[in-house]
Amino acid sequence: MNGVPADIPPEEKLNAVYRLTTGLVQQMEKARIAEYTQLLNSPWRLVWLNVLSGTARGLGIALGFTFFAATIIYVLQVLGALNLPIIGDYIADIVRIVQHQLELKTF
Description:
The structure is a single chain. The termini are far apart. The protein is mostly helical. The protein contains 4 helices and no strands.
C-alpha cells in the first residue's frame, strides 16, 4: 500500500526511521542552520558582519589590483628599456602616461 513491505518487523522499521532521522540531523548540523537562524534574528550583528566582510573584500581587491598594476608597470618598464623598435615606443608611452597620472593624484 504505502511502499513498505508488510513482513518487516516493527523494530526494523523504527531502526530505519532512527537512522534516517539521525542522518538528517547530522546534515542540518553540517549546514549550520541553527547559527544561520540566530544570525537572522539579530539584524545588527548581520549588518556588522556584512560591513566587516565588505571592508575586507574591498581592501583585498585594492591590494590585489595595486600589486597587479605595479607588476605590469614594472614589466612594461623593463620591456621599454630593451629599446625594441615599435613595441618599445608604445610601451614607453604607456609608462609615461601612467606615471604622469600617478604624479597628478596626490592623496
